[in-house]
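hi support,

uploading two proteins for the ticket. first:
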Amino acid sequence: MFEQTFKNIDDVLWKEAGCTTELDYTEQTSWMLFLKYLDDLEHERAMQAELLGKPYSFIIDDNYRWSAWAAPKTKNGDFDHDAALTGDDLIDYVNRKLFPYLHGFKQRASSPDTIEYKIGEIKNKFSSGYSLRDALELIDGLRFRSQQEKHELSHLYEAKIKNMGNAGRDGGEYYTPRPLIRAMVKVTKPKLGESIYDGAVGSAGFLCEAHDFLRQKKLTTSQLKTLQIRTFYGKEKKSLAYVIAIMNMILHGIETPNIVHTNSLTENLADIQQKDRFDIVLANPPFGGKERKEVQQNFPIKTGETAFLFLQHFIKYLKAGGRGAVVIKNTFLSNADNAARALRRELLESCNLHTILDCPQGTFQGAGVKTVVLFFEKGAPTRNIWYYQLDPGRSLGKTNPLNDDDLSEFVELQARFADSEKSWSLDVADLDADSVDLSVKNPNKAEEAPLREPEVILAEIATLDKESVKILEGIRGLL
């Protein structure tokens, strides 16, 4: 129903000078969707209040509501083209009046989990008031009234986020393949009433999939309220991802997501108290980034590697008995530097690292690194680690991505830590105490031929060169 509308919006954005990538398309679609959603929500709440004979106080003032500037209507309910601003007038209104008004909400918000806080975070990149007018009219045709409409919109929005992930290196930050997330959720088994946290929330894929997992059962009104208000928590550093995460969660049925726009790593781990902790951590933190020295001071194990700081952050944020599933570069398992070894020791001593899922090359589009998923429970040291080497039997790529069937055997075998051709267990007592090397070494597969030393290769090249010279000399003699 809404698919063509989304395509038409992309066509409008493609012509817009301020929007150059799939990331921009999704961000700009997001802020318009958000304001339209908010207008629908406010009118719905006002009608409910009226039926109950109660007053309703609108969050957005009359002049700044969607129905006033984005989509004014005639008395018949038709679009009022005479009253609708366009061209320079529209851009001037949006940049000089609307957005300064909206940004004021952040200062007035009582806490980050309020709609007011979310309103204060959105940004405009349109430079043409004609393009913006076209986009607004298309967005106005979308409806958020029924659960079915939200469900369809959420699928289309997920497709946009997936396209972002395929758009290149930067887009990959925001997109973790959904089949992988679903497998991580199934293994972690969240229960209603538990709190779920992602400190590098990106597009909120983990929280949305965990929500869908918990919504599979019939829930009471009280349980739905718990799911809405006291279950999902996240933090995101980048403005673009923050806005996308909010919209993604809203479309999945979470009206006021508990997402804070902040850099999780600026928090000092020593300040975290029991009340701040969560039952479950699900995350794919950014890796490769280099954090500044003052940020590193917040952590017991000092390192510039962003993913290693996040792993410390997640362990600290888990309650005793809490469960974590975190994607990380596979080099974490074997890196010989002091920080990596210290972090592996910390993980093994403070948590039961019960499962390591080894993901194949191509799992993440546009990312050249190989990854593993660490599954752990906080509070007891690791005795045994169960490994599973995921091998879908084909090369993964943009046209041949990971699917749920690829991970079904992993989920099934993991439930009983069963051995197979692709899975095995490691006794931590057998680890080298100095290196704490947790590398994936499948005992059921023959070892690949070791790489030769550079000197050997160079010597062979020199030998071949000599032979080539002799052959050429022989050919010359024949001429």
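and the second one:
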Amino acid sequence: MSSHTAIGRTRWAIAEGYIPGWSNGPEPQMASHETCCILNAGGQPAQVSITVYFEDRGPAGPYTLTIEPRRTRHLRFNELADPEPIPADVPYASVIESDVPIVVQHTRLDSRQAENALMTTIAFAAD
């Protein structure tokens, strides 16, 4: 297998999302956040689109970005702003779509108390 071989899937889902409304510790390092870690191990740029779903209103997005070939991107949902910010203290889910295979991992840092909680899991490969 070449190091330029694309791996992963083109559709991913993260069914669980929640950005805590406050943090304990220095920012930006210890700010409570949700992160979508995206790996593009292939040789082509990945055009990525993220749609965010809520319990009580229509979806937000798409949020679009490019992941260059053989690169990774750690995208904090807290920092998404266009077309709208993701609200804190509101449950949500997300679907990540790409025109080339990528790998997606979900991570949350909850620093609302001094004993921080870190959670991570691979996203659901939807295709």
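thanks. also noticed: The domain at 9-125 is CATH 2.60.290.11 (Hypothetical Protein Tm1070; Chain: A).
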